[in-house]
Each structure stands twice: as structure tokens, then as C-alpha cells.
Write a structure and sequence with these properties.
335 residues; alpha+beta; globular; 11 helices; four-stranded antiparallel beta sheet; 25% strand; five-stranded antiparallel beta sheet; single chain; SH3 type barrels
Length: 335
């Protein structure tokens, strides 16, 4: 299987974007430079544009009555490139992921699988062994779970409220009306969460997180959401629902490439990092949602001695308790 082919490179893609626009209307050199910066690199215009504008690549025609403006010399727009065997193989692997299948109706999923039936998956789900994940993940293949997931997607797309029957931790089911604005996935818990504004006193104001596995009934409200609520919802996306007042303060030694590893591992969190000259280390403040507290705690401990938790005191106490419990499991009760 060929991994790389030059016709799929960013340079070919950039020229293709230029020709697409030049086929619709005349395009200026400045516009072509902007396309080069968007789809390739800053210096791409220095090598690509002279070949296009001076005729080395006879793909553009200069307009006499408009300086530095060109139109496409082709009688048709450039065709779409077919997917490579590697891309098809990767899509076939994704299509067999039960989480991927949640985003499609049964009819849509059948069309996807039929279109990929002749492709060998790049990998199988059985090829992965998750050593840091809880085993009570959501039941993605359950018909009711799939139905609820599709209902949530519809409400998100159509800006409608949801009427939800939700079972709490005590096993009590209650009815609530909520305006959904985001779906979250936790790789540690292997669960989907629904972020929404629960209705209170005739308005959608209570920011709430619901576990989809505990949804017992889910229907789209026949009424559209108020315009004011629709305007608010996009601003809530990718923001902590219940952000802690104090961030976790970490001291990163820099040993064993720990700084780069931490920045990559905690990239989904809001954080501020600065270098501390006296201690020759980095201090990193991480702001997080309380729903992710346990997951963040476990992730920090996975770095071992290269990361030290400095505060706050409440979080530091949780770290000490977790380390003590792990020690007792391995070596017995501390004397």
C-alpha cells in the first residue's frame, strides 16, 4: 500500500484551489498568495505563483484589461481527487467503530458500509488494549442508546429543546426539559456526556451535564428554542460547565521530555505555563471542569516524579490519598 503520492500533497491541493476560484471568476495575485498561505506554506507562493503567472504551467490566462489578474485556461473546473487506498482503508476501520456508527442513522450506516465493503480495514477494534480505561463504558450498540443519540443530534442541528427522562445515581427517574449545546466524550470513562441548559422558571439557565447511558427516554420538543437561548448556546461550547475556582498548579521538571508530554497530554484544558528561572522548572496552572477532576488526577499521576502537584490543598490531599491507596494495594497497610 502506497503511503504517499505527490498529487495529494499540499502543493497540488493549493494549485487546485487556485484553479477552482479562477474558473468561477478572475483571481488576483494577492488572492493567490492568500490561498498559498492558507493551504500550504508562507514561502509556497515564491515557487508556485511564478510558474502559474509566467506560463511555465499553462493553467492560467492573464487578463489584458486588469493588471495582475488571471482566469483559468481550463474549460472545466479541476475534478475532485479520488480517495487513496490508504484513506479508504482508514475509513473502513472507522466505520466499524461503534462510536463512529452513532452519528449515522441505520439507513446511512448501511450505505457507508456498502460503499466500503471491498476495502480491508486498516485496523480492527480488537487490535487495541486499553489499560487506562474503565470497563463500564456506554452500551453503544444498544438500540435505545442509538435512538437517544440520534435524537440528541437532531435537537442540536435544529436548535430544539429535549424532553428527557433521566435516571440519577439513586435510580430515581425524573423528567426534565433542556436545551442541548454540546456532546462530550471521555476516553477515560468511555462515555458520552450531554452538556445542556436545563429549564428553570420558564427559562433555560441551569448548566447541566447528563450521562447518555442514564437517559431512559429522549424526545425532541415540538417548540423551537427562544432566539435568546439560541444565541447563548454557541458561546458555551468547549467551555467548562462547572469550572473550579482554583486551578491545579503543577511543577514540571523538564526531565524525560516532560514539558512537551504535558503540553500534549493536557492540550484540551485551559492552562497557563511559565518558566521559573530559580527552580529551573516550569509552573503550569490547569483550569478544569469538576466533572473531569478524577480523570485529570489520574493523568497527572501517570507522569510520575517529573511532575509535582503544588496546589490547591484540596487537590493535593486527593493526590496523597490516591498514592497512599495504590501503595497499600501493592505493599500492604502503612505502619
Amino acid at each position: 500500500m502506497e503511503l504517499f503520492n505527490e498529487i495529494y500533497s499540499c502543493y497540488y491541493q493549493t494549485v487546485r484551489r487556485i484553479l477552482e476560484q479562477a474558473a468561477e471568476r478572475p483571481i488576483s495575485v494577492k488572492e493567490m498568495e492568500q490561498l498559498c498561505r492558507t493551504w500550504a506554506f508562507q514561502e509556497t507562493s515564491l515557487s508556485v505563483l511564478p510558474r502559474l503567472t509566467k506560463g511555465d504551467w499553462p493553467l492560467l490566462t492573464h487578463l489584458e484589461d486588469a493588471p495582475s489578474t488571471y482566469k483559468s485556461a481550463l474549460s472545466f473546473p479541476p475534478p475532485e481527487l479520488p480517495l487513496t487506498d490508504l484513506q479508504m482503508s482508514w475509513l473502513a476501520a472507522l466505520a466499524h467503530d461503534p462510536r463512529f456508527q452513532l452519528f449515522f442513522t441505520d439507513e446511512e450506516l448501511k450505505r457507508v458500509l456498502d460503499g466500503l465493503k471491498d476495502c480491508s480495514p486498516l485496523y480492527c477494534q480488537e487490535d487495541f488494549h486499553y489499560y487506562d480505561r474503565f470497563r463500564d463504558g456506554d452500551s453503544y450498540t444498544s438500540p435505545s442508546y442509538r435512538e437517544h443519540f440520534q435524537t440528541v443530534l437532531r435537537a442540536l442541528r435544529e436548535h430544539r429543546a429535549l424532553l428527557i427522562g433521566y435516571e440519577n445515581k439513586k435510580g430515581i427517574c425524573r423528567l426534565l426539559e433542556a436545551a442541548p449545546y454540546q456532546l462530550q466524550y471521555s476516553s477515560r470513562d468511555d462515555k458520552f456526556r450531554l452538556c445542556c441548559l436545563q429549564r428553570r422558571h420558564e427559562s433555560y439557565c441551569l448548566n447541566t451535564i447528563l450521562n447518555l447511558e442514564r437517559v431512559r427516554d429522549c424526545r425532541v420538543s415540538p417548540d423551537a428554542l427562544p432566539a435568546q437561548t439560541v444565541r447563548i448556546l454557541p458561546r458555551l461550547r468547549f467551555c467548562p460547565v462547572r469550572q473550579t475556582k482554583e486551578p491545579v498548579l503543577l511543577k514540571i521538571s523538564g526531565e524525560r521530555n516532560s514539558l512537551e508530554r504535558c503540553m500534549l497530554h493536557f492540550s484540551s484544558y485551559e492552562k497557563h505555563t511559565q518558566y521559573h528561572e530559580e527552580g529551573d522548572c516550569w509552573l503550569c496552572s490547569i483550569y478544569y471542569d469538576t466533572a473531569d477532576e478524577t480523570e485529570l488526577l489520574v493523568d497527572i499521576l501517570s507522569f510520575g516524579p517529573v511532575v509535582e502537584v503544588l496546589g490547591p490543598e484540596r487537590f493535593l490531599k486527593m493526590v496523597k490519598e490516591r498514592v497512599k491507596r495504590q501503595y497499600e494495594l501493592l505493599y500492604g497497610t502503612l505502619s
